[in-house]
Design goal:
alpha+beta; Arc Repressor Mutant, subunit A; Alpha-Beta Plaits; 3 domains; 4-stranded antiparallel beta sheet; 10 helices; 10 strands; about 25% strand; globular
Length: about 250
Protein backbone atom coordinates (compact mmCIF):
# COMPACT_ATOMS: atom_id res chain seq x y z
CA UNK A 1 0.00 0.00 0.00
CA UNK A 2 2.83 2.38 0.74
CA UNK A 3 4.04 2.03 -2.83
CA UNK A 4 0.56 2.74 -4.15
CA UNK A 5 0.33 5.82 -1.92
CA UNK A 6 3.65 7.11 -3.21
CA UNK A 7 2.55 6.63 -6.81
CA UNK A 8 -0.72 8.48 -6.17
CA UNK A 9 1.26 11.35 -4.67
CA UNK A 10 3.56 11.49 -7.69
CA UNK A 11 0.62 11.59 -10.08
CA UNK A 12 -0.88 14.40 -8.03
CA UNK A 13 2.33 16.40 -8.19
CA UNK A 14 2.54 15.89 -11.95
CA UNK A 15 -0.92 17.41 -12.37
CA UNK A 16 -2.65 14.21 -13.42
CA UNK A 17 -5.41 14.86 -10.88
CA UNK A 18 -6.23 18.20 -12.49
CA UNK A 19 -6.43 16.62 -15.94
CA UNK A 20 -8.81 13.99 -14.59
CA UNK A 21 -10.93 16.42 -12.56
CA UNK A 22 -14.08 15.69 -14.57
CA UNK A 23 -13.64 11.94 -14.11
CA UNK A 24 -12.93 12.41 -10.41
CA UNK A 25 -16.06 14.52 -9.96
CA UNK A 26 -18.18 11.84 -11.62
CA UNK A 27 -16.84 9.13 -9.32
CA UNK A 28 -17.33 11.19 -6.17
CA UNK A 29 -20.86 12.17 -7.14
CA UNK A 30 -21.70 8.51 -7.72
CA UNK A 31 -20.38 7.66 -4.24
CA UNK A 32 -22.54 10.38 -2.70
CA UNK A 33 -25.63 9.05 -4.49
CA UNK A 34 -25.11 5.50 -3.24
CA UNK A 35 -24.39 6.65 0.33
CA UNK A 36 -27.64 8.67 0.35
CA UNK A 37 -29.64 5.81 -1.12
CA UNK A 38 -28.36 3.29 1.42
CA UNK A 39 -28.45 5.46 4.55
CA UNK A 40 -30.69 8.45 3.88
CA UNK A 41 -29.96 12.15 3.43
CA UNK A 42 -29.38 13.04 7.10
CA UNK A 43 -25.62 13.40 7.48
CA UNK A 44 -25.94 13.39 11.28
CA UNK A 45 -27.09 9.77 11.26
CA UNK A 46 -25.48 8.70 7.96
CA UNK A 47 -21.73 8.62 8.65
CA UNK A 48 -20.92 7.27 5.19
CA UNK A 49 -22.73 10.15 3.50
CA UNK A 50 -20.99 12.62 5.80
CA UNK A 51 -17.62 11.18 4.78
CA UNK A 52 -18.48 11.18 1.06
CA UNK A 53 -19.80 14.75 1.27
CA UNK A 54 -16.55 15.93 2.82
CA UNK A 55 -14.49 13.97 0.30
CA UNK A 56 -16.37 15.62 -2.55
CA UNK A 57 -15.94 19.08 -1.03
CA UNK A 58 -12.22 18.44 -0.55
CA UNK A 59 -12.04 17.82 -4.30
CA UNK A 60 -13.88 21.12 -4.93
CA UNK A 61 -17.10 19.54 -6.17
CA UNK A 62 -19.73 22.34 -6.02
CA UNK A 63 -22.15 22.08 -3.10
CA UNK A 64 -25.25 22.26 -5.32
CA UNK A 65 -23.89 19.38 -7.42
CA UNK A 66 -23.47 17.29 -4.27
CA UNK A 67 -26.96 18.19 -3.05
CA UNK A 68 -28.49 17.09 -6.36
CA UNK A 69 -26.62 13.80 -6.06
CA UNK A 70 -28.08 13.29 -2.58
CA UNK A 71 -31.58 13.93 -3.91
CA UNK A 72 -31.04 11.43 -6.74
CA UNK A 73 -29.89 8.91 -4.15
CA UNK A 74 -32.99 9.36 -1.99
CA UNK A 75 -35.32 9.36 -4.99
CA UNK A 76 -36.30 13.04 -4.82
CA UNK A 77 -34.76 13.42 -8.28
CA UNK A 78 -34.69 10.83 -11.05
CA UNK A 79 -31.35 9.06 -11.51
CA UNK A 80 -29.55 5.83 -12.38
CA UNK A 81 -29.46 3.12 -9.72
CA UNK A 82 -25.89 1.99 -9.00
CA UNK A 83 -24.80 -1.29 -7.44
CA UNK A 84 -21.67 -1.72 -5.33
CA UNK A 85 -19.47 -4.55 -6.63
CA UNK A 86 -16.02 -5.64 -5.47
CA UNK A 87 -13.59 -7.64 -7.61
CA UNK A 88 -10.39 -9.34 -6.50
CA UNK A 89 -7.38 -10.41 -8.49
CA UNK A 90 -3.64 -10.55 -8.94
CA UNK A 91 -1.36 -8.16 -10.79
CA UNK A 92 2.01 -9.35 -12.15
CA UNK A 93 4.47 -10.62 -9.51
CA UNK A 94 1.60 -11.93 -7.37
CA UNK A 95 0.49 -8.49 -6.17
CA UNK A 96 -2.96 -8.68 -4.56
CA UNK A 97 -5.54 -6.23 -5.97
CA UNK A 98 -9.01 -5.20 -4.79
CA UNK A 99 -11.23 -3.18 -7.14
CA UNK A 100 -14.31 -1.42 -5.75
CA UNK A 101 -16.93 -0.42 -8.34
CA UNK A 102 -20.30 1.29 -8.56
CA UNK A 103 -22.10 0.09 -11.65
CA UNK A 104 -25.48 0.21 -13.35
CA UNK A 105 -24.57 -2.88 -15.41
CA UNK A 106 -22.85 -5.71 -13.54
CA UNK A 107 -22.16 -7.78 -16.66
CA UNK A 108 -20.47 -4.92 -18.51
CA UNK A 109 -18.35 -3.91 -15.55
CA UNK A 110 -17.27 -7.47 -14.80
CA UNK A 111 -16.21 -8.01 -18.42
CA UNK A 112 -14.29 -4.72 -18.47
CA UNK A 113 -12.39 -5.50 -15.26
CA UNK A 114 -11.56 -9.03 -16.37
CA UNK A 115 -10.28 -7.70 -19.70
CA UNK A 116 -7.94 -5.23 -17.98
CA UNK A 117 -6.48 -7.92 -15.75
CA UNK A 118 -5.98 -10.25 -18.70
CA UNK A 119 -4.37 -7.65 -21.00
CA UNK A 120 -2.06 -6.44 -18.22
CA UNK A 121 -0.65 -9.83 -17.30
CA UNK A 122 -2.82 -10.31 -14.23
CA UNK A 123 -5.75 -12.55 -13.38
CA UNK A 124 -9.10 -12.35 -11.63
CA UNK A 125 -9.61 -14.27 -8.39
CA UNK A 126 -12.57 -15.65 -6.46
CA UNK A 127 -14.19 -13.43 -3.77
CA UNK A 128 -12.16 -13.63 -0.57
CA UNK A 129 -9.01 -14.84 -2.31
CA UNK A 130 -7.03 -11.66 -1.58
CA UNK A 131 -9.28 -9.53 0.65
CA UNK A 132 -8.04 -11.33 3.77
CA UNK A 133 -4.71 -9.55 3.22
CA UNK A 134 -6.33 -6.12 3.79
CA UNK A 135 -8.02 -4.25 6.64
CA UNK A 136 -10.36 -1.29 6.18
CA UNK A 137 -8.98 1.72 8.04
CA UNK A 138 -9.33 5.46 8.31
CA UNK A 139 -6.10 6.97 6.96
CA UNK A 140 -4.85 10.55 7.27
CA UNK A 141 -1.75 11.68 5.38
CA UNK A 142 0.01 14.74 6.82
CA UNK A 143 3.07 16.80 5.86
CA UNK A 144 6.10 16.68 8.12
CA UNK A 145 5.65 20.29 9.31
CA UNK A 146 4.19 19.07 12.62
CA UNK A 147 6.23 17.20 15.24
CA UNK A 148 5.46 13.61 16.18
CA UNK A 149 4.77 14.57 19.81
CA UNK A 150 2.34 17.37 18.89
CA UNK A 151 0.57 15.14 16.40
CA UNK A 152 0.18 12.25 18.81
CA UNK A 153 -1.10 14.56 21.56
CA UNK A 154 -4.07 15.49 19.38
CA UNK A 155 -4.54 12.25 17.45
CA UNK A 156 -4.59 9.70 20.28
CA UNK A 157 -7.45 11.44 22.09
CA UNK A 158 -9.40 11.51 18.82
CA UNK A 159 -9.22 7.77 18.14
CA UNK A 160 -5.97 7.35 16.20
CA UNK A 161 -4.55 3.84 16.46
CA UNK A 162 -1.11 4.27 14.91
CA UNK A 163 1.31 6.81 13.46
CA UNK A 164 3.83 5.80 10.79
CA UNK A 165 6.74 7.69 9.26
CA UNK A 166 6.28 7.50 5.47
CA UNK A 167 9.42 9.46 4.63
CA UNK A 168 8.07 12.78 3.40
CA UNK A 169 4.78 12.43 5.27
CA UNK A 170 3.12 11.08 8.40
CA UNK A 171 0.38 8.44 8.13
CA UNK A 172 -2.25 8.26 10.87
CA UNK A 173 -4.59 5.27 10.99
CA UNK A 174 -7.85 4.79 12.87
CA UNK A 175 -10.98 2.70 12.90
CA UNK A 176 -13.13 3.83 9.94
CA UNK A 177 -15.83 5.05 12.31
CA UNK A 178 -13.35 7.27 14.16
CA UNK A 179 -12.10 9.08 11.04
CA UNK A 180 -14.59 12.01 11.19
CA UNK A 181 -13.66 12.72 14.84
CA UNK A 182 -9.93 12.44 14.04
CA UNK A 183 -10.28 14.79 11.11
CA UNK A 184 -12.21 17.33 13.21
CA UNK A 185 -9.63 17.17 16.01
CA UNK A 186 -6.80 17.90 13.57
CA UNK A 187 -8.72 20.81 12.03
CA UNK A 188 -9.54 22.25 15.46
CA UNK A 189 -5.85 22.06 16.40
CA UNK A 190 -4.85 23.84 13.20
CA UNK A 191 -2.94 20.80 11.92
CA UNK A 192 -3.02 20.61 8.13
CA UNK A 193 -3.32 17.28 6.32
CA UNK A 194 -3.09 16.22 2.68
CA UNK A 195 -5.92 13.67 2.74
CA UNK A 196 -8.29 11.89 5.11
CA UNK A 197 -10.13 8.88 3.75
CA UNK A 198 -11.35 5.38 4.51
CA UNK A 199 -9.15 2.94 2.64
CA UNK A 200 -7.90 -0.64 2.60
CA UNK A 201 -4.45 -1.19 4.10
CA UNK A 202 -2.48 -4.31 3.27
CA UNK A 203 -1.22 -6.45 6.15
CA UNK A 204 1.79 -7.53 4.08
CA UNK A 205 3.44 -6.15 0.95
CA UNK A 206 5.06 -7.49 -2.20
CA UNK A 207 8.34 -5.67 -2.97
CA UNK A 208 8.86 -4.55 -6.57
CA UNK A 209 12.59 -3.96 -6.79
CA UNK A 210 13.02 -3.39 -10.54
CA UNK A 211 11.69 -0.70 -12.87
CA UNK A 212 10.20 -3.34 -15.17
CA UNK A 213 8.21 -5.04 -12.40
CA UNK A 214 6.99 -1.70 -11.08
CA UNK A 215 5.84 -0.53 -14.51
CA UNK A 216 3.86 -3.74 -15.11
CA UNK A 217 1.92 -3.38 -11.86
CA UNK A 218 1.37 0.38 -12.18
CA UNK A 219 0.15 -0.09 -15.75
CA UNK A 220 -2.57 -2.42 -14.47
CA UNK A 221 -3.53 -0.09 -11.60
CA UNK A 222 -3.74 2.92 -13.91
CA UNK A 223 -5.79 0.99 -16.48
CA UNK A 224 -8.31 -0.05 -13.82
CA UNK A 225 -8.61 3.50 -12.48
CA UNK A 226 -9.46 4.78 -15.97
CA UNK A 227 -12.93 3.17 -15.86
CA UNK A 228 -15.77 5.38 -14.62
CA UNK A 229 -17.30 2.42 -12.76
CA UNK A 230 -14.12 1.90 -10.73
CA UNK A 231 -14.16 3.91 -7.50
CA UNK A 232 -11.11 2.58 -5.66
CA UNK A 233 -8.19 0.27 -6.40
CA UNK A 234 -6.13 -1.18 -3.55
CA UNK A 235 -2.95 -3.22 -3.93
CA UNK A 236 -0.26 -4.59 -1.64
CA UNK A 237 2.88 -3.69 -3.58
CA UNK A 238 5.78 -1.65 -2.24
CA UNK A 239 8.18 0.16 -4.55
CA UNK A 240 11.49 1.63 -3.28
CA UNK A 241 11.91 5.37 -3.82
CA UNK A 242 14.85 4.75 -6.13
CA UNK A 243 12.72 2.62 -8.46
CA UNK A 244 9.79 5.07 -8.32
CA UNK A 245 12.13 7.82 -9.46
CA UNK A 246 13.00 5.77 -12.54
CA UNK A 247 9.32 5.15 -13.28
CA UNK A 248 8.47 8.82 -12.81
CA UNK A 249 11.25 9.87 -15.17
Amino acid sequence: MSGHSKWATIKHKKGAQDKARGKLFAKLIRQVEVAAREGGSDMTSNATLRTMFQKARDASVPTDTIERAIKRGTGELEGVRYEAITYEGYAPNGVAVIVECLSDNRNRTGADIRNVFSKSGGSMAEPGAVSWQFHRKGVVILPKDVSEDDLMLVALDAGAEDLEDQGDTWQLTSDPGDLPALRSALEDAGIKFDSADVTMLATQSVPLSTEGDARKVLRLIDALEEFDDVQNVYANFDIPDSVLELVEA
